[in-house]
Amino acid sequence: MFETLTVKLSGALRTLSGRGRISQANVREAMAAIEIALLEADVNHEIVTEFCAEVLEESLGTAVLESLRPDEQMVGIVHKRLIALMGESAARLTFVEPGPTVVMMCGLQGAGKTTTCGKLAAWLARRGKSVLIAACDLQRPAAVEQLGVVTEAAAAASAGARIMFHGEPEQCGAHGTAMGNAVGVAQRALRRARAEKFDVLIVDTAGRLHIDDALMRELESVDRAIEAHEILLVVDSMTGQDAVASASVFHKRLAIDGVILTKLDSDTRGGAALSVRRVTGAPVKFVGTSERVDGLDEFDPQRMAGRILGMGDVVSLVEKVQGQLDEKEQEEIATKMAKGRLTMDDFLGQLRSLRRMGPLKQLLGLLPGVGSMVKDIDIDEKQFDRIEGMIRSMTKCERETPTLIDRSRVKRIAAGSGTEATEVGRLTKQFEMMQKMMKQMSGGGLAGMSGKLNAMREMAGGGGMPSMPSSAMSKPDAAKSRFKQRPRR
Known about the structure:
The protein is of the alpha/beta class. Helices cover 53% and strands 9% of the residues.
C-alpha cells in the first residue's frame, strides 16, 4: 500500500542525506518534492498546503540546520506531522456494559460495506466477542443473501466463536421495501441481541450509488430506532478525494464515529487515508488489507506514518506472526532449525502459516527499509501452490530426507505434481541452502523472521531484492511548487 507515495517521499528526504550541514535552500528543495508527492497521491490540496507549511516552519529551525544528521531530523519532523495529520493516537471501538454494543455500518454501494461487516465480526470474534449481524439493506437485490454468506464465512474462520445472522428476506420485494421495514428489522435484531446476550450487534444498512436525501433519511431513521453506539462509515480508499468528500457529507448528517477504509492494500497513493481525518474530523478506525475474512486491521497513525516513510511496521508483523504460529510448534521447529534438521513437511507447515498471514509482498512491506522497494518486487504467489504440489508428491522418506531425491525421483515428483523436473531440482537445492541459512540465523528473533520471509520469497521465484534506482525520484518541477527558493536579483 502507498508504494508510489513511499518511493517519492523517501526520494525527497534522501536528497538531504550525506550532507554535513543543510541550508534553507536544501530544505525548500526537499519540501518542493514532498509537496508534489502529496498532491500526486491525491491528498486534499488545502491539507497539503497546511502540512508543508508546518513541516517547513519546524525544519527551518536552528536545531535542524545545525544538526550533524539533518536528514534524520527531517524524517522525524515529517513522521511527526504525518501522525498529527492522521490522528495522534489510534481510535478504538467503544464497548458498552451490559451489551450489546450496537455498531451501525453505512456507506455507498460498491465500497465493500457488506463484506466489511463479516470482517469486523471475525475481528471481534478473535477478541472474544459474540456477534449478531443484522441485514437491514432491503434495497439492493440479494443483499440479504450476500450478508448471510459473509456471516457464514466469518463464523467458519472464527472456530468456536458465536457469530450469527439475523435476516428477514421475505420482507424484501423485487424492487426493495419501504424504510419502515428496515427500521423494523433493526429493532427486532436489537431485541434478539439483548435476549440472546450477544456482545455486539452489527447492522448492515442500505447504500446508494450516490448520496441522496432518501438514503440519509433512512439511515437517520434506523439510527434513531436502535440508538447505535458506533456509526462506522465504509469508504473505498481507491476513490481518493471522492471518498473524503462522501465521508464529509455522511458526517454532517449522521455524526459518524469512525471510518473504515477498504481496499487499502491496493491503494498506491494514500490520499484518502491522509485526508479523511482532517477534512471530516472523524477518525479512521479500521483498514481493509486483503479480500480475506481476516483482512481487517485497526488503523494506527504511528504505524501507518512509519510505513508511508518506508520505515516498516514491525509491530504489525509480530502481531501477524503471533496470531498464526503455535508457540510449542515453533519451539520444536527452532530446535530442528538449529540442528539443520528441518524436513520438507516442516517447511510446508511453515509455508502454510506464512500464507495465512497475507500476501508475501504485503508482509515484506512491513520490514524496515523494504517499504520503498516493495513496489518493484515481483512475487508469483501461484509458485507457492506449485511448491506444495511438489512436496505432496514426495514420499514420506523423501520429505524427511530430501538428499535421497535423485534424478529418477525428480522425474516422478515432477510428473506427480504437474511441474518440470528443473523446478523440482531447484526446490531441493534451495531447500538445502535454506537449511544452512536457517541454522546460521537460529535464535535471531525478528532478524530471523526477516530472513525467513526472504528465504520463502527466494523459493517462490522472487529473485533478489532490487536496489532503488537513482531515477526513482524525479526532480520536482520548480514551476509547480511555491517552496522552490526564488533566485536573488
